[in-house]
Design a protein that fits this description.
- This protein has 250 residues and is of the alpha+beta class.
- It is built from six helices and eleven strands.
- Strands 1, 2, 4, 5, 6 and 9 form a six-stranded antiparallel sheet that branches. A three-stranded antiparallel sheet has the order 3-8-7, with no helix packed on it. It has a two-stranded antiparallel sheet with strand order 10-11.
- Helix 1 packs antiparallel against helix 2 and helix 3 packs antiparallel against helix 4.
- It is globular and about 55 Å long.
């Protein structure tokens, strides 16, 4: 990531987080925000309807790294958390152009595949499906904030979604199904249109298959392990996970 200049003016950043899963410690990142001249502070409030607890104040740790603002906080299950971060400001990137790495792209492929597989198993409106797609959108927002032109991510995002749905539809309906074939046709059309590294294309493809296999059969599944190894080999050929793939070199 390149260095940034802080824009004038202070602001407040607010997150509202819904947790329908197990209790745990969570991390949120906001790469486009920095401290506005003094340490930022965070206040957090948790509502647990089943416990009849409403807007109870809790703690959230805020820090700033090279990746931008980071929030660490603990959430009980079946809760809503509101986090208010004061003394922050947007960052305008100048000088060295920030970029998105191959590792970040494959992590997005992991989230998108999990979301597509979850939707095929549980339906579009299931809470688990909604939570999975929310994680995809959050990751997309964080990645887009690292680009001088956020819309540069859109083409790559579409490529990843075609792969995620191709895997989910093929597993759910079979290789010859119209839904699966349509996704794979769109995947190949999109990768030709983007003209990115073939190793990146196939790292995304194999990552998606590894995620699906492990979600269905567990981490010891031989097919999933083989797909993960193929993905890592393509990443090595590309130069490793830290290789910047967006913006593309001219």
């Amino acid at each position: 990531m390149g260095h940034g200049n802080v824009l004038a003016g202070k602001s407040t950043l607010t997150y509202v987080v819904l947790n329908r899963k197990d209790a745990g410690i969570y991390l949120l990142r906001a790469p486009a925000f920095a401290a506005a001249g003094q340490p930022a502070t965070a206040r957090a409030f948790i509502t647990q309807p089943k416990e009849q607890s409403i807007f109870a104040e809790t703690t959230a740790q805020v820090s700033f790294t090279k990746a931008g603002l980071e929030l660490h906080f603990e959430l009980p299950t079946e809760s809503v958390c509101t986090i208010i971060v004061s003394q922050v400001t947007r960052v305008q990137f100048t000088g060295t152009v920030p970029g998105v790495t191959a590792g970040q792209v494959t992590e997005l492929a992991v989230l998108a595949t999990l979301a597509a597989v979850t939707e095929r198993r549980n339906g579009e409106f299931d809470n688990r499906t909604c939570a999975a797609w929310s994680r995809v959108e959050h990751a997309c927002g964080c990645i887009a904030a690292m680009l001088p032109i956020p819309s540069q991510l859109e083409g790559l995002k579409q490529l990843i979604l075609h792969v995620a749905w191709g895997v989910a539809n093929e597993r759910a309906f079979g290789r010859e199904s119209k839904d699966a074939q349509a996704c794979w046709e769109r995947f190949h059309t999109q990768r030709e249109r983007l003209g990115m590294s073939k190793d990146l294309d196939w790292a995304i493809f194999n990552t998606a298959w590894a995620v699906e296999s492990r979600a269905r059969l567990g981490t010891e599944d031989v097919g999933g392990q083989a797909a993960a190894q193929r993905a890592e080999e393509h990443l090595r050929k590309l130069g490793g996970r830290s290789t910047v793939v967006l913006p593309q070199k001219s």
